[in-house]
């Protein structure tokens, strides 16, 4: 069974590199991935499907410290542990945010 690209899921190549799918554009036939080191790459959906069928791409667990791909620091400049939004309480500050509201409406 081949691994279908799904945004937010982690995968591993046959060489052991782990990456997360960050975007899938079926209209353009592309899959955008971000490797653990932060490198972003765009793959053709056809290439993904061929590599997946040949078991060159497989689903994987998210790394224990997924912050390796992003620059996240604590207040003292050290890497911040568990910097992701782990619960609804942390996301509560974004309630009511309308991403499609025009900037003029905010004044």
Write up this protein.
The protein has 107 residues and is an alpha+beta fold. The protein contains two helices and five strands, in the order ββββαβα. It has a domain at 10-62: SH3 type barrels, CATH 2.30.30. Strands 4-3-2-1-5 form a five-stranded antiparallel sheet, covered by helices on one side. A hairpin with a 4-residue loop joins strand 2 and strand 3. It starts with 9 loop residues before the first strand and ends in a 16-residue tail after the last helix. Mean pLDDT is 76; it is low at 79-91.
Strand order of the largest sheet: 4-3-2-1-5
The top level CATH class name of the domain at 10-62:
Mainly Beta
Q: How many helical elements?
A: 2
The CA-CA distance between the termini, in Å, is 52 Å
- Structural class comes to alpha+beta
What form results from the Cα inertia axes? globular
- Which residue ranges are poorly predicted, with pLDDT under 50 across at least 5 consecutive positions? 79-91
What is the CATH topology assignment of the domain at 10-62? SH3 type barrels
> Major β-sheet, in short?
5 strands, antiparallel
Helix content: 10-25%
Count of DSSP E strands? 5
- Assigned CATH architecture of the domain at 10-62: Roll
DSSP strand content: 25-35%
Helix/strand order: EEEEHEH
Radius of gyration: 17 Å
Mean pLDDT: 76
Outline:
With 107 residues, this protein is α+β, with helices and mostly antiparallel strands. 12% of the residues lie in helices and 25% in strands.
Blueprint (SSEs and pairs):
Blueprint: E1 10-13, E2 18-25, E3 30-35, E4 40-44, H1 45-53, E5 57-60, H2 88-91
């Amino acid at each position: 069974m081949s691994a279908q690209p799904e945004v937010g899921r982690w995968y591993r190549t046959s060489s052991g590199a782990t990456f997360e799918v960050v975007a899938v554009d079926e209209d353009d036939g592309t899959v955008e991935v971000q490797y653990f080191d932060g490198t972003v790459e765009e793959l053709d959906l056809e290439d993904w499907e061929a590599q997946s069928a040949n078991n060159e791409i497989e689903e994987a667990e998210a790394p224990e410290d997924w912050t390796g791909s992003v620059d996240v620091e604590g207040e003292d400049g050290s890497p911040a542990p568990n910097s992701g939004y782990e619960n609804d309480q942390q996301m509560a500050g974004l309630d009511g945010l309308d991403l499609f509201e025009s900037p003029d409406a905010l004044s």
